[in-house]
Amino acid sequence: MVRAIVVVLLVTCALASREAAYHAWRTEHKIATAPSTEEQSWYEKSSAEIEALTTASPHATFKLNAKAGSPWGIPRGTLSGSASLTYRYFTNEQIETALNTSVDWQKTPDVPLEGAVTRIKNQGACGSCWAFATVAAIEGMYKQKGRSLSSFSEQYILDCLPPTVGLNGCQSGDIRTLAQLLAVGNYPLPYETNYEYLSYDNTSHACNATPVGVAKVSAAYQIGTTGTQALEDAMAAWVYNYGPIIVGVSSWQSAWQLYSSGVAECPAVPMNQLDHGVTIVGYGVMNSVPYWKVKNSWTPKWGETGYIYLRRGTNACGLRWINTVVEVQ
Predict the structure, then answer these.
(1) How do residues 41-82 score in pLDDT, each as one tens digit?
(2) Signal peptide span per the entry (predicted)?
(3) Distance CA 100, CA 83 (A)
(4) For 54, which DSSP code?
């Protein structure tokens, strides 16, 4: 009888502890929605998942961030890159030169394009990652022209481009279709300060055609290879010689959602399981592990101050499938 009472008390205490931990997590991350059984279930699954992730990615750390109460591990393919773009190739010599160095557009002093990355932004509840990823690349290429680092408008892309198959506002987007449309059409992006982002709450807005366009995309490509070249090596050559790369990833994987720091391993997935657009802004080697430095749009509170480092050369999270690059006038 006494043993039974002790067991009941221990179970009760454990449940109370779990409940307290869940609500403490909500408070820490200022979760605005009401608590739910489903959210708590995902929070507890995330807590258990971190140990498995740490084993699979010994060079990375993971944590119960603001995404810990969201579903993961469920494949979804809301991002696409179906448009056919002209290939951009590199010689073996160009690739070798790139692989013998490292690039960080955000902060490396000896790179001419240092300072070509704007602040980490916040797409909110809107599925506009495809616009944020593309704008980040445009901002880098604009700076490459010798101009001041400037932040351009994602909201303009959501509001003012003509109805186009594959571009579905806050629901989904095709990054290659967007890049191609910006290249062939007359849609220069205005400064963000003149056309601010409003779709945090997953709402659509009418186009305000008043702001003057500034950054005009002149061409869009995808990286190609010849002979025995590896695609990710050729992608490094673009980053080294020109600038950022727009890519799609499978952010539904726990390795992405719960990432905190270091170089993460993230299983490759088929192209039809990509759901999130992001921007490669650098590469290098950390603790003998080759990596991509990737800019996200989930606020600086996610990941490593808004960035994630993914193992390079493994098609981590499927990032090489729909690589897209742009040039700016």
Answers:
(1) 999 999 999 999 999 999 999 999 999 999 999 998 888 777
(2) 1-16
(3) 33
(4) H
Contact between residue 273 and residue 320 where contact means Cβ atoms under 8 Å apart: no
- For residue 65, give the nearest of 248, 200, 250, 256 by alpha carbon: 256
Residue 187 has a CB neighbour count (10 Å cut-off) of: 18
Best CA proximity match to 266, nearest among 43, 22, 40, 56: 56
Number of Cβ within 10 Å of residue 94's Cβ equals 17
Measured CA to CA, the distance from residue 219 to residue 327 in angstroms comes to 5
CB of 62 closer than 8 Å to CB of 53 = yes
The domain locations on the chain are: 1-31, 79-328
The pLDDT tens digits for 169-223 are 999 999 999 999 999 999 999 999 999 999 999 998 999 877 899 999 999 999 9
Q: Does domain 79-328 have CATH number 1.10.1660.10?
A: no
